[in-house]
Amino acid sequence: MSTSTFRNHRLVVDDLTDTALAATLLAGGAVVAHGFGNIYALTARGDAASVARVNALKGRPVDQVGSITLPPDRLLSAFDVDALPEPLTPELVGRVVDAFARVGPIGFRGPAASHVPAHLASTANGVLTTQVIVPGTRCPSNRFLTLAAAAVSPVPLFITSANRSRHVTGAADEPAHWRADALRDDLAGAHGLVVLEHADERTARHRYPYHQPMSTTILGLHHVSVVDGVVHLPVERNGSLDVARVRWVLAGLGLGVTVEPSARTRLTAREYGAAPALSS
């Protein structure tokens, strides 16, 4: 099925028929730019060739390690829970994942499960890890991710921010898009690209009042610190959910937070020249 057939047909992530079509196209090799929490993301098959192709599309190094996405209730399947650092347990990590996913989009880095391929894994703090990004339990994109994951299994789903890379633009940071019209302009001419829009972008942003429209915050699960008897999880990327809110969520679980050097500066949200019109 050719993606060019749907280039001028609006697909929306809130519609089950459209999400099923997008999942089928992804399984056939398409890259899907889709509503994800309060922004847009690019998702594709997680085989090495597809990851390299999406990296090239964005202008990143083709061998750059990718991230995984899946529905939040399957997030732990990407991790080797037997390799979690003490005193973390699978049960505690499950509560952490559930608490943050109920708030909105979030990312975690943890020990990579044995089935995670090398191009979706990297070594951090002496541990082979993988990074998993989820849209939050309330996001309509979970239906798309569920269908797409089933269609490509056992290959994982690869995800990255929906934008051209800073390697192309020369910017210190190239924020993710949160408007489909600007996303289409930015990635115009990309072969095999399917856009699965938020039905209403303003509603999508308002669904997550604690999040800014930018790439997700990432928490580490592969190493922890213990301060005064309290387990602290590291923030590795300071993104859409601010550190104060991360601290608040973790405090409810009896945990603390540390901020890695990589997270001392928060990401920036993309700015557009004019306010977007409401989607119809």
Describe the structure.
The chain has 280 residues and is an alpha/beta fold. It has one domain: DHBP synthase. Helix content is 27%, strand content 22%. The protein is built from 8 helices and 13 strands. The protein has helices at residues 16-27, 48-58, 90-103, 141-152, 166-169, 180-186, 201-206, 243-251, and strands at residues 11-12, 31-36, 39-45, 67-69, 106-111, 122-124, 127-134, 157-161, 193-197, 218-220, 225-227, 230-237, 256-259. Strands 1, 2, 3, 4, 5, 6, 7, 8, 9, 10, 11, 12 and 13 form a 13-stranded mixed beta sheet that branches. A hairpin with a 2-residue loop joins β6 and β7. α1 packs parallel to α4. The radius of gyration is 18 Å and the shape is globular. Mean pLDDT is 92; it is low at 1-6.
Overall shape: globular
Number of domains: 1
Q: Which percent band covers the strand fraction?
A: 15-25%
Number of helices: 8
The counted number of beta strands is 13
Q: What is the level 1 CATH name?
A: Alpha Beta
State the assembly state of the protein chains. Answer: single chain
CATH topology: DHBP synthase
Summarize the biggest pleated sheet: 13 strands, mixed
Overall pLDDT confidence: 92
Measure the end-to-end span: 27 Å
Give helix and strand order, one letter per element, not per position. Answer: EHEEHEHEEEHEHHEHEEEHE
Please identify which CATH superfamily we are dealing with.
DHBP synthase
The low-confidence parts are 1-6
CATH architecture: Alpha-Beta Complex
Write the layout of secondary structure elements.
Elements lengths: L10 E2 L3 H12 L3 E6 L2 E7 L2 H11 L8 E3 L20 H14 L2 E6 L10 E3 L2 E8 L6 H12 L4 E5 L4 H4 L10 H7 L6 E5 L3 H6 L11 E3 L4 E3 L2 E8 L5 H9 L4 E4 L21
